[in-house]
Amino acid sequence: MTPDGILGVVRAFCQLRLAFIALLSCILITSLRASPAQFTSYSRNSRHILEGNWQSCREADGRYSERVYDHIVNGVPKFEVHMGPRREFAIFEGVQDEHRAHDSPANLLKPYRIEVEGNLASHEWKIPSLNLVFTVTLSGGSRGDCESWYILLAPSARPKPSH
Predict the structure, then answer these.
(1) Among 156, 146, 152, 158, which residue's Cα sits nearest to residue 81?
(2) Fewer CB near the last or first residue (10 Å), C or N of the chain?
(3) Nearest 5°: phi and psi at 9?
């Protein structure tokens, strides 16, 4: 192969490499955009009903995402948990298909909207009627178009038997 032929192959390789890098960059940038409502589950304790990271992001229409978790035990609907939009949370007895307003008297969480001071926020609700404790804490990584929350929903501690 002549030097000009080798130089042509090297140029073609470099152009292909640049195109590949550009493609990877586009994929990475696209994946960093605000995504729909996400809940990443992880638990250190099998008694916990929900434990993990909830992220509410601004969607294309300017509204923040919401996710609803239906808690069903042995086919019986017990309650539903609303996470989002943004800083709103709700728990309702029973499960239904229609969306329920978070400011409704049926919402067992008061207040239902968490106030953020600086970049700090946390709240714990005790729900005796369902024997639950629900805790939310604003997590690191929250920014203008997304808020990230650590959530923990667990049964209330059982009273110790008296002797």
Answers:
(1) 152
(2) C
(3) -65, -45
Which residue carries 């002797």 as its tokens? 163
Amino acid 52 reads G
Count CA atoms within 13 Å of residue 71 on its CB side.
17
First to last CA, the chain: 93
Which helix (H) or strand (E) is 28 found in, with range?
helix 3-32
Count CB neighbours of 138 within 10 A.
20
The two structure tokens encoding residue 126: 């005790």
Residue 160, pLDDT above cutoff 60:
no
Question: Cα(80)–Cα(70) distance, rounded to whole angstroms?
Answer: 4
Q: Say whether pLDDT at 64 is over 80.
A: yes
**H/E element holding 31?**
helix 3-32
pLDDT at res. 145: 81
100 neighbors 88 (Cβ within 8 angstroms): no
In this structure, what are the phi and psi dihedrals at residue 13, rounded to the nearest 5 degrees?
-60, -45
